[in-house]
Structures are given as structure tokens and as C-alpha cells.
Design goal:
With about 450 residues, the protein is α/β, with parallel strands linked by helices. The protein has helices at about 35, 40-50, 70-85, 90-100, 110-120, 135-145, 165-170, 190-200, 225-235, 260-265, 305, 310-315, 320-335, 345-365, 370, 395-405, 435-450; strands at about 5, 25, 55-60, 130-135, 155-160, 175-180, 205-210, 240-245, 270-275, 285-290, 295, 300-305, 375, 385-390, 405-410, 410, 425-430. It contains 17 helices and 17 strands. It is globular and about 65 Å long.
């Protein structure tokens, strides 16, 4: 069978169309640039590496712990949510329609999420300020689409950063400028300097993205004083802060930090949350909190979340009713608070973090650093830490490690926005049992010791 290539619209001698029986072939450079961008491929590559080398112990993902799942919980939580609605006096016909039909664009568990936010995060917003989304990724896409209206508007982002924010910006053609984090997370004065540098080029810094609690990929936590100062910088530089907080519930006892949103008194923070880590990964449910008032041409005022529903309607129409019912049932069953309900889960993650740190120290004693050239940071929680090695650790080295040594990880260079991290790796320990972590670090040590320093 012959093929026909679809040329770019302005390519000379583009064919009129395929002849009978010909198979149409598309040229990659005729697609949106983000589709061909190698930096957009990191999550797929890591997933395919896990499938290609199924026997390898994987530190490459941040999958939540899955030892507490029970099939019976699915029906239990849906039944619990139905009971919750009945207790609120919702008619049976309305309940049936909510679960079986298309639902409201912004979701129908906003009241439940609003109660949870008041109980867990001291965030007091009305239900109308909440949008239920398909996880963080849709929340980020919706927020970015609403906030950025012109080509000269720039998103500032902590670097290294979760690859999902870079991907969302790239898919929407939003320019991204890195603000490098330090050992204590993002420096507010560096944010101010970055905003002024962008403005000096004739562009407008519109928003800032960060994960203040146990950042992905570095595991850093932004100190309280820096949080307060960052809010001041946002006001001074006219920035909206996109606060991504999937890991905040898993702090050690007594070390939980107030969210930026709970400290915000000037409407500078849009809060992006997820139930993937805390409640039910498979539900793929998240939420956006945007209580900023928006006044329309007719003088009517609605919340930003309500205004952004137009974007969500075009992205996904609405979020899964069954996923919302399951999460709603989990919230109702736990008195609309997840902090007590996640303490056992937090203990699992903290144990795995400590086992990872202890195993690294066993194989790479700090006093012998000059010999092995291996060091790492020591997060107080979360799912990740970073390891510095004495050689460039890219995708090729990662695949060789998975193939020949039976352990995988993620190159930190994937997470840097403007380059960097070439000699660092990210270890995700959240979904590995302690014995698997010990064996995985032993395998990693053999790989590192057998790799020439450059």
C-alpha cells in the first residue's frame, strides 16, 4: 500500500489529497509544536520504561501507596454518599439523576469539598468558589486558560517543577520563565526579581506556580516567613499564585504548614487540590479554588471559578459523577476532614522516606563523599528526594540502570525548565515497601559504583 504525506499548510507542492487506496501519513512538524517537543514526553517515557522492564524496582514514579485499597470500598462509599444526600433531604429522583446523568459543569460535591477545606486547611470559601476537575492537570489547564489572554503574558514557575505545569503551559502556548529554588524552596525575592526582569522585556508576568509543601520533585517545604513574604511579593508585582498542594496532608505530626491560600487576604491565590494522593487515586478527581470576584459587563458578579466553568465545559464538559460520588462518600464518612483519616497513610510515607534515607547512608556513607560523590537532600515528608551523582544521569543511563541493574528512577533534568539537574536523579519511594526500597537502593548503589565518574 502506498502512503501520502500531509504537508504543513504553507509547504510548497502540497498534495491535493490522497488517491484512492492511499494511506494518509502526517508529518510531525505539521502538528502543534508541543506534540513534537521531547520535553513533553517524560511521563510517557517513565511509564514505558516500567512496562519494558517489569522486573525492575521503580523509583521513577510518584504513585500513591496502594496497600489500603479494597474493592468493597467502591460500593460502600457510593452508598455512603447516597445516604448523605438523603440525610440532607435531596429527593431520590434528584440523586438518581446526579449519579446517572450528565452533571453540572463545575461538579456537585463543592459543598463537601468546602467543608473539608474549612476543617483541614482553614480555607473558608463558598461552594461557588470551587470547581471539581479531572485531577490537577485539568485544574491547571482551566486556570491557565482563564488567566492568560495574550502572547506577552508570562507564567513564572519554580524550577525544578512538576512536569505537568510545563506541559500545560506548552499546550496553551504560554511562555514559561524559571525561578530556581534553593534548599528551603522558592525565595520570594527571586520571584520579585524574575517578575521585574520579565517586565523589563515588555512582557507581563501574570502568575506564579509552585508546590509549597514537599515539592515534586525536590521534596522542599517553603518556610512560614517565606510564605508570608511571597504573598507580599504577589501583591507588589501584581501576580496570581497557583498553589499546588497534593502532599500537605502528609507532614509529620505537628509540622503541618498553613497553605498560602489560608494566609491570603488579598485574593492573590488560586488553590489547586487533588484527591489522588489522599483519598482515591483511580477517581482522578481534583479541584480548583478560585473565590476572586469577577464583574461582568452587565454588572453582575460571580466567582472566578464560576467564570472558568466555560473553559472546563470545553475541556471536559464535566467531571465523572461516579468519581464524585465515591469521593463525596469518603468525605461524608470521615466527617468532611481528611487529616485524621490520612494519619496512618502519612506514617507509611514517613517510614518509607526514612528507609530510603537510611539505605542511602548505608551504601554511601557521608564521610566517604570524596570517593563516591553521592549526596542527597533530606525532606521532612512527601513522596520524593533528590540524589546527586558524579556523572550525567539522563534517560540513557536510566534505561541502562533499569535493564542491567533492575532499578529505575527519574532524571532530574526532566524537571528543570531552563536546563540543569544533569547529575541528579529523583527517587520516588511512595509506592515501594521498605524491603523493596532497601533492595532497590542496593541495586542503585551497584549501578552508581560501576558507572565511571565524568
Amino acid at each position: 500500500m502506498s502512503t501520502t504525506t500531509l504537508s504543513a499548510p504553507d509547504a510548497p507542492n502540497a498534495p491535493d489529497g490522497p488517491a484512492d487506496g492511499d494511506m494518509l501519513t502526517l508529518r510531525q512538524d505539521a502538528l502543534h509544536p508541543a506534540i513534537a517537543d521531547p520535553s513533553m514526553d517524560s511521563m510517557r517515557i517513565l511509564s514505558e520504561t516500567a512496562m519494558k522492564f517489569p522486573e525492575a524496582l521503580s523509583f521513577s514514579s510518584g504513585a500513591p501507596y496502594d496497600g489500603n485499597h479494597d474493592l468493597a470500598d467502591l460500593s460502600f462509599h457510593i452508598d455512603r454518599y447516597v445516604k448523605h444526600l438523603q440525610e440532607r433531604g435531596v429527593p431520590q429522583q434528584r440523586i438518581t439523576r446526579l449519579l446517572f446523568q450528565y452533571g453540572p459543569v463545575n461538579g456537585f460535591i463543592q459543598d463537601d469539598v468546602a467543608q473539608m477545606l474549612r476543617n483541614d486547611e482553614d480555607i473558608d470559601v463558598p461552594a461557588e468558589a470551587i470547581m471539581i476537575t479531572h485531577g490537577f492537570q485539568e485544574a491547571a489547564l482551566v486556570a491557565l486558560r482563564g488567566l492568560f489572554s495574550g502572547p506577552d503574558e508570562v507564567l513564572l514557575s519554580v524550577s525544578p517543577a512538576y512536569v505537568g505545569i510545563r506541559g500545560a503551559a506548552r499546550m496553551l502556548d504560554i511562555p514559561l520563565e524559571a525561578v530556581d529554588e534553593g534548599p528551603q524552596g522558592l525565595d520570594p525575592e527571586a520571584v520579585a526579581a524574575a517578575a521585574r526582569a520579565v517586565r523589563a522585556t515588555g512582557r507581563r508576568p501574570a502568575a506564579l506556580y509552585l508546590v509549597p509543601d514537599f515539592s515534586n520533585p525536590s521534596g522542599t517545604v517553603l518556610p512560614l516567613q517565606a510564605r508570608r513574604r511571597l504573598l507580599e511579593v504577589a501583591a507588589e508585582e501584581d501576580l496570581i499564585i497557583l498553589e499546588d498542594n497534593p502532599y500537605g496532608l502528609f507532614a509529620p505530626e505537628g509540622e503541618a504548614m498553613p497553605t498560602l491560600k489560608s494566609l491570603d487576604t488579598a485574593g492573590r491565590v488560586i488553590y489547586l487540590g487533588s484527591f489522588a494522593k489522599s483519598a482515591f487515586p483511580g477517581a482522578r478527581l481534583g479541584y480548583l479554588v478560585a473565590d476572586q470576584p469577577v464583574t461582568g459587563a452587565d454588572g453582575a458578579t460571580r466567582t472566578l471559578a464560576q467564570e472558568l466553568s466555560r473553559a472546563k465545559a470545553m475541556f471536559s464538559v464535566g467531571s465523572s459523577s461516579l468519581s464524585q460520588a465515591v469521593v463525596g462518600g469518603i468525605l461524608a464518612e470521615n466527617g468532611h476532614t481528611l487529616r485524621p483519616a490520612t494519619r496512618e497513610l502519612a506514617a507509611v510515607y514517613l517510614e518509607r522516606l526514612q528507609v530510603t534515607l537510611d539505605s542511602l547512608a548505608e551504601h554511601f556513607p557521608p564521610e566517604d563523599h570524596a570517593e563516591h560523590q553521592v549526596s542527597w537532600n533530606t525532606p521532612r515528608g512527601g513522596f520524593f528526594l533528590t540524589v546527586e551523582v558524579g556523572f550525567e544521569a539522563g534517560l540513557g543511563e536510566m534505561e541502562r540502570c533499569a535493564r542491567d541493574y533492575g532499578v529505575s528512577w527519574a532524571p532530574m533534568s526532566m524537571f528543570h525548565i531552563d536546563g540543569g539537574g544533569e547529575r541528579q536523579i529523583r527517587l520516588g519511594f511512595s509506592n515501594l515497601a521498605p524491603e523493596a526500597i532497601r533492595e532497590g537502593i542496593a541495586r542503585l548503589a551497584r549501578f552508581i559504583n560501576h558507572t565511571p565518574r565524568a
